[in-house]
Specification:
This protein has helices at residues 11-15, 18-32, 52-69, 85-93, 159-167, 210-219, 248-257, 273-280, 293-297, 310-322, 324-336, and strands at residues 2-7, 36-41, 73-77, 97-101, 153-156, 175-177, 197-201, 224-228, 241-244, 260-262, 285-288, 302-305. By secondary structure, the chain is an alpha/beta fold. The protein has two domains: 2-105 and 145-177, Rossmann fold; 184-336, 3-Layer(aba) Sandwich (Rossmann fold), CATH 3.40.50.2000. The strands form two sheets. It has a six-stranded parallel sheet with strand order 2-1-3-4-5-6, sandwiched between helices. It has a six-stranded parallel sheet with strand order 9-8-7-10-11-12, sandwiched between helices. Strand 3 (73-77), helix 4 (85-93) and strand 4 (97-101) form a beta-alpha-beta unit. Helix 6 (210-219) packs across helix 10 (310-322).
Length: 343
């Protein structure tokens, strides 16, 4: 079978970082089963999909790739940049499509990531919902972004994500959950250590709850706190060191030398890809119990705290900081649960 993987991932992230892990989620099982896989990215268009000319260029690029490769199936990956048109092109050529979203899903009319019983979701500005980059591509405010997908196949990365789609009226037989995991050969563990620093590597946007990370650091000043992530921001705080965007080698350096990976998400984190990387490196995790996090991280190298109890989170971090033996134990447990169950 010939699979064309259509992805949002930027070129540098395909080589290193989270983008590579996301792509391996699709590529490893596909190639293990003997399928031929090629991919096309929106990397040079990312963040610039503001004109019909740009969109036309991207669709022509996709159509030329289809003619050249002649795939049996088109796997859309994440889908934030590409919008609806690739499905229309695939239909025109009679090629079935699958949407794979291991990390997050934008699904409702108001472009909320999740709108479920708890009604916990947020925009990038911290208010009640999160806007998709698709608003740049001409999709109207009242359109259901993934309404077109309700009769198509979707692969998600957690039971939580599948539950959200079923609540939205998607068909159970069309939504498959495949567990996410990492390449076991890519990470050498570094257990324990007494560096004294806590680390969070994150997208710098409000749904990640970074203001709570700052609050946590301010209340636990005996510890050293480090924050890294993109896009770069002008941050100068007495409570933590902000590194800005960092290279893959620097990321590995800090993750291997941290004591604990700490995350304070406001939204329902679907999986926690960086959490899995931390566990693969033998480091314990402290984060909130919400979204898909319990499926991947409950009771296996992590301490989960009920949202939004920062005092309990601070107590757990202080306990781990003082007990290297426990950190090593959790690190070894967590590493066992960081790898992909897929080929």
């Amino acid at each position: 079978m010939k699979i064309l993987l259509v992805t949002d991932e930027r070129g540098n992230e395909i080589i290193t970082g989270g983008g590579l892990n996301h792509l391996l989620y699709v590529l490893r099982p596909a190639t293990a089963l003997g399928h031929s896989v090629e991919f096309i990215t929106a990397d040079e268009y990312r963040g610039r999909m503001t004109s019909p000319e740009r969109k036309k260029e991207l669709m022509e690029k996709l159509e030329n790739k289809i003619k050249e490769f002649q795939p049996d199936i088109i796997n859309m990956f994440n889908n934030c940049i590409w919008g609806f048109e690739p499905y229309e092109i695939a239909d025109r050529y009679g090629i079935p499509t699958v949407l794979t979203v291991p990390d997050y899903m934008l699904i409702c009319k108001a472009r909320m990531i999740y709108k479920i019983k708890e009604k916990e979701s947020c925009k990038r500005d911290g208010t009640e919902c999160f806007k998709c980059p698709n608003y740049r591509t001409g999709i109207k405010e009242d359109e259901d972004i993934f309404g077109i997908m309700k009769d198509r196949r979707i692969i998600v990365g957690s039971d939580f994500m599948k539950m959200v789609l079923l609540e939205k009226g998607y068909k159970d037989e069309n939504v498959n959950m495949i567990e996410y995991g990492l390449n076991p050969d890519a990470y050498k563990p570094s257990y324990g250590g007494n560096s004294g620093f806590m680390l969070n590597i994150s997208r710098m946007s409000p749904e990640k709850g970074l203001e709570m990370y700052v609050d946590l650091a301010s209340k636990n000043q005996n510890l050293k706190w480090i924050l890294a992530g993109y896009p770069p921001m002008d941050i100068n705080s007495p409570f933590f060191d902000y590194l800005g965007p960092i290279s893959e080698s620097d990321k590995m350096y800090y993750m291997k030398n941290m004591e604990i990976f700490v995350s304070t998400p406001r939204w329902h984190e679907p999986i926690g890809g960086t959490y899995l990387e931390s566990k693969a490196l033998g480091k314990p995790i402290v984060t909130f119990r919400r979204g898909g996090i319990p499926q991947y991280h409950e009771g296996n190298g992590s301490i989960l705290i009920d949202y939004p109890n920062l005092d309990a989170m601070g107590e757990a971090i202080q306990m781990l900081h003082k007990d290297e033996e426990l950190r090593i134990k959790l690190g070894k447990e967590g590493r066992k649960h960081s790898y992909s169950p897929n080929p």
